[in-house]
Amino acid sequence: MVNTVFSHGLSLPLRRTFTPLVSLFLLFSAAILSAEDTVHPAKTTGHNLKECHSKLATQGAGWCEISVSKQHPSISSVWPKNLDKKTTMNTGPASVLIAWNSAAFDKNNRIFYFFGGGHADYGGNEVYRFELDSGSWLRLTEPSPLNHLFAQADYKKREGKPWRRLCWTTDTRRLPASTHTYDGLIFSHATKTIFLYNMRAANGSCFEDTTDSFKNSSAVIGSRTATKGWYEFNPSIDRKINELPPLSWRKVFDAQQLSQAHIHQGYPASAELDNGKIIFGSKHRTAIYNPTNSDPDTLSTFSHQADWGDGTKEYDNQRAIVWSLHQQKLLAFDAKNGHLSKRLDAKLNHGKSIAISNAGDIVSWNGKSKIFSLNPDQPPAEWQVLDWGIQGPTVGDSRVYGKWVYLPEFDVFIGLSSHKTGVWVYKHLR
Length: 430
Prior knowledge:
With 430 residues, this protein is mainly beta.
């Protein structure tokens, strides 16, 4: 007989129907399941969401991988080729997923959009698309040429180095530079476009301009602050949307306008409310933005509260709450007024990822085999941890952010944290 082992030291037999787990989860709010000691359905594969959903419905719970091939299971199948060294930087396009980057998700059409690189990792600013219904990947744009410069260190700012340190970037007055998006990339269902809060450009291609070769060059756009902005992208291949031509960007707000709206530099975060408005900003302060109105004077403060470091936000339409998950705390903000209503512990090795199930549970994924779930309305509000071990994803990255979503119509979660695996479809074990 195979046993289920809980953190409380209790061992009970587990049947394949999973029925005993439902009552046990209610009894033990901090129960930890070990997948090695539990009868779990095996991992399976499928060509698209429909196929994976069908297999998981038969199994009752578990993981299904939508994989392109063994060599290139996901985004690597459409990476740009023949990149120059300036763009490749230290890690290349792998950092679109495995660096501190999120995703934008079109829930109506079940499409993910990916963008990012950042710091010294990768300099490409191309956009990718993954369609759950077809199981297909597409690179929508090419990396922009890095033919402009920003001053990472200005004249006479460093002892013994009176010259400037310059870094190659794209023309950020029109296009966003590669960046760590954190939780600052979001799809607007009101405009059908993507918005990006760019904190700062990647700085992996820099040099010391000791000869002052670019002293009067128009290629220098300013300091790194000049690369900051709130950008909008039309992901349509053939349609003009919100006055944007197909597959084009525009800079909606620059650094000065964001500063005037008290959106300070910090870890980007964003969430979409049920009225179509977007909450975006940093860990220090967030603002409410109407995506149909690009007037900076319409920005209004949502909240001033944050927690340590980066995190991710998610709107809970069942409770009218904006949840904000950080390294140590899970914060709850009233969606109507931005007031902090709850502060719950989150001292777990989660992936800074949250999605809200039909049952109202907050579910987080660590990018590999562990699932964390919480019912915030059931005291004591403590996390349950389910470790799928080898029956879950064994390869992944903990910086998940918005690359984890819930599909209420299918009652499954979708996640991707690494180019080394396909896109995961997960049906929760209750």
